[in-house]
Automatic annotation (TrEMBL):
It comes from Mytilus edulis. The keyword Transmembrane helix applies. The keyword Transferase does not apply. Keywords: Membrane, Notch signaling pathway, Transmembrane, Transmembrane helix. InterPro entries: Aph-1. One of its GO terms (cellular component) is membrane. It is a multi-pass membrane protein. Belongs to the APH-1 family. It comes from the Eukaryota. The chain crosses the membrane at residues 55-75, 81-105, 112-131, 171-191, 203-229, 235-254, 266-288. Pfam families: Aph-1 (PF06105). One of its GO terms (biological process) is Notch signaling pathway. This is APH1.
Length: 311
């Protein structure tokens, strides 16, 4: 995003100066004309410290917590990494079909709601395809574990515990979704440029980062709920996943300016999205076998370990 204001000024010797106002800094590009000689001097614009700080801040907001989850729960296991990458590939396939449909329907290209609705539908369809693929591959994964288990450090519980595979597949969906959602925004965030010159909201970058984080966690929770629902044939939970996915995605339409709305309604989309995220987290927790007793035990263990460290 480059916002520029350009002025022409002349000095007493009729030297022409091009004044470029960009990123709240003034840069001079001199063009001197004397008889048949022409000389130009240009100054390269470097990203300011403010834009770099905003870039790293929004990056850590969006990908900091997911990176921590990846390090502590996935990185040490090669099988989980394979499932993670495969899940992300299926999300890319859904994006490809959504793009083809958007490109084919020319009259509705300018309607964001049209592309958004079908994007959600394709994502959930390919989530189902990936579920079927994992269930078909269970037998093969068990054979790999029996043959190469000690060398590959493939834990049997990764195969037998279907909630782990659901978590990893949802994580892959969320990471690739978050990357495609914010990567172009991060590229513009580096600068040079200052958001807001043309009336844009100064909260655009931060709001995008928080929504990206929300969608990453939502895909993790949706993956756990979706896989469990299909295993237990609880199709109302599948409908819950699709409905909440559609709801949160449609809420992001409030972040655009329209003829009747001069300012984006970031809070109107972020707050409900995080409320849905917390609700889906609770559902996923109990779906995976969690209970109130587990929470109490975890809290008591933390207190006892802290007491031991103090003593």
């Amino acid at each position: 995003m480059h916002n520029q204001l350009i002025f022409h000024v002349f000095d007493s010797n009729f030297n022409s100066y091009l004044v470029l106002l960009q990123s709240r800094k003034v840069h001079f590009s001199r063009k001197t004309t004397f008889q048949k000689k022409q000389r130009s001097t240009e100054i390269k614009v470097q990203p300011s410290k403010m834009t770099m700080m905003e870039f790293f801040g929004c990056t850590f907001i969006a990908f900091g917590p997911p990176f921590g989850l990846f390090v502590f729960t996935i990185m040490h296991d090669p099988l989980r990494i394979i499932v993670l990458i495969a899940s992300g590939f299926f999300w890319l396939l859904s994006l490809l079909l959504s793009s083809i449909l958007w490109f084919a329907v020319v009259p509705l290209r300018e309607e964001l709601a049209f592309g958004l609705v079908f994007s959600v539908i394709f994502q959930e369809i390919f989530r189902f395809f990936f579920y079927k693929l994992l269930r078909k591959a269970d037998e093969g994964l068990q054979k790999v574990n029996q043959t190469e288990g000690p060398e590959l450090h493939v834990a049997p519980r990764d195969i037998t515990n279907k909630n782990i595979m659901a978590y990893v597949s949802g994580f892959g969906y969320g990471i690739i979704c978050g990357a495609f959602s914010i990567i172009n925004v991060l590229a513009d965030m580096v600068g040079p440029g200052t958001i807001g010159i043309h009336g844009d909201s100064k909260y655009f970058f931060v709001a995008t980062a928080f929504l990206t984080l929300c969608f990453i966690f939502l895909h993790i929770f949706w993956g756990v709920i979706f896989f469990h629902a299909l295993d237990k044939k609880k199709y109302y939970m599948v409908a819950l996943v699709v409905a909440t996915h559609m709801l949160v995605s449609c809420l992001t339409l409030l972040n655009q300016r329209t003829v009747n709305r001069a300012e984006p309604l970031y809070l109107a989309s972020i707050l409900p999205a995080y409320f849905v995220m917390l609700a889906m987290g609770v559902v996923a927790f109990f779906t995976a076998g969690g209970s109130v007793e587990n929470i109490k035990s975890a809290i008591s263990c933390c207190k006892s370990s802290a007491k031991y460290e103090i003593e």
